[in-house]
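The instructor's notes for this session suggest beginning with a concrete chain rather than abstract definitions. Hand out the sequence below and ask the class to guess, before any prediction is shown, which regions might be ordered.
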Amino acid sequence: MGNVSSKEFFFIGLSLSNTPNNDSSVCVIDRMRNIVLLDKLYFTSDIELFFEKNPYVKNSQITVSIPHDNTLLEGKWRIHCKNYKMMDENFKVNRNNWTNRLSDRCSELFLKLKDSGLKVSRFDINLLRQGYGLSAHYLQRTSLDCKSLQSALKIKFSFSELPENMLPASSLEAILGAMFLYDCAAGNMNPKKLFEYEGLDVLASY
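After discussion, reveal the predicted structure:
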């Protein structure tokens, strides 16, 4: 581990779900690389309250996952209808945003945090896992995949404080996000900007 060169004391990773029906998770890591907070959030109001009231936020770097928009997957007919529907001026392909692949949930909140002077970025969980050599060997987010990922975080990356019982997938992804920020600040990884999404840089490391 290198010496942390940033002035921030905490590194926050948020694994964001695309809807309140699925859990989001937040992880806070300190400059000693200890997990000081790991919690689940559901509603948008819960996420907003955390970033407005939690004392860790003011002295932190923040990274947020980009959730996939599953609207397209919930309507199989939408996929098939494109093959037969005439593309005339009366047909709006992206009506109600159903062809979007990424969700912009809470984007205004994260831009507000950035405008307040905080360092805020986004990450893609698949690319982050690839950068750490943690690509899924099982179907992603299944119990086998979560068990494998949790074991790797506990043994390979020395998060000995993780419990024996299985953590939710979102919590494991939040830990990865926070660990990525820490490693970038410590010089263990070189972040690269892949693209910009909703006004924030999407970072990864190879």
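Then share the key points. Helices lie at 44-53, 71-74, 76-81, 107-115, 125-131, 143-155, 169-185. The longest helix spans residues 169-185.
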